[in-house]
């Protein structure tokens, strides 16, 4: 745990991880259910069966998320994504195109994460900063900026990996394989990325750094320009 002390540590509590800060993998587990339902429905009833199963499962997941208190926008976006994926498959007549939206989303995400590091606004820092209510204060800490940049490459790699798996299966119209790998490369991969990026951050921060909640120099915004990460 070198280099990431937090105030909680002084109290003897377990230090926070990225999974603690970002809510773990609960949403990712929910996201695997409609694709799996589509694959099963397609096996049992063709394209129509797959679409009905996916939309019904998406609606059930949305209702469950609503009841447990998730934000309405988040619930609605999840359901609309399932409906749009189903609509694409119906319009093209190819069951494998149900996963086309996911493929496009991963391609866009890989590009966005990579560009964010290059322009020194690493998305992992943006996400964690919002979760902690820091906005852009973390960028005033060169060590945090560098750590978030390195860890953001971990997340970029997850999207590239998904593309490397999904695209050949989509081109070969392997519907069941797409459904299974969609689940396999969702919450397990997210859990692995959370753990690995946390390790990268810990090892990137210098000894004695106060941790993610306490950016060094965050109150010194008026002293000069923001320092960039070390090369």
From TrEMBL:
**Record keywords, A-Z:** Membrane, Transmembrane, Transmembrane helix
User: Domain of life, per the record?
Assistant: Bacteria
Q: Where is the segment annotated Disordered?
A: 211-231
Which Pfam family, any one of them, does this sequence belong to? Answer: DUF3159
**InterPro entries this protein is in?**
UCP010219
Which positions, given as ranges, span the membrane?
Answer: 40-62, 74-90, 110-132, 153-171, 183-201
What is the official name of this protein in its record?
DUF3159 domain-containing protein
Q: What is the lineage of its organism?
A: Bacteria, Bacillati, Actinomycetota, Actinomycetes, Micromonosporales
């Amino acid at each position: 745990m070198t280099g990431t002390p937090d105030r909680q540590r002084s109290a003897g509590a377990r230090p926070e991880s990225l999974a603690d800060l970002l809510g773990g993998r609960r949403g990712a587990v929910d996201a695997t259910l409609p694709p799996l339902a589509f694959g099963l429905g397609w096996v049992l009833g063709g394209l129509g069966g797959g679409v009905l199963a996916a939309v019904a499962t998406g609606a059930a997941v949305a209702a469950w998320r609503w009841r447990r208190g998730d934000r309405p926008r988040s619930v609605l976006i999840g359901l609309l994504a399932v409906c749009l994926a189903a609509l694409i498959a119906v319009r093209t007549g190819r069951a494998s195109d149900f996963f086309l939206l996911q493929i496009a989303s991963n391609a866009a995400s890989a590009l966005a994460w990579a560009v964010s590091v290059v322009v020194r606004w690493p998305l992992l820092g943006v996400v964690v900063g919002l979760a902690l209510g820091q906005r852009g204060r973390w960028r005033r800490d060169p060590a945090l900026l560098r750590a978030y940049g390195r860890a953001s490459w971990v997340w970029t790699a997850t999207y590239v990996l998904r593309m490397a798996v999904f695209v050949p299966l989509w081109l070969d119209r392997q519907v069941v394989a797409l459904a299974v790998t969609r689940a396999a490369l969702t919450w397990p991969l997210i859990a692995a990325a959370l753990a690995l990026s946390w390790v990268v951050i810990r090892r990137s921060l210098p000894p004695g750094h106060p941790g993610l909640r306490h950016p060094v120099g965050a109150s010194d915004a008026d002293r000069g320009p923001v320092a960039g990460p070390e090369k």
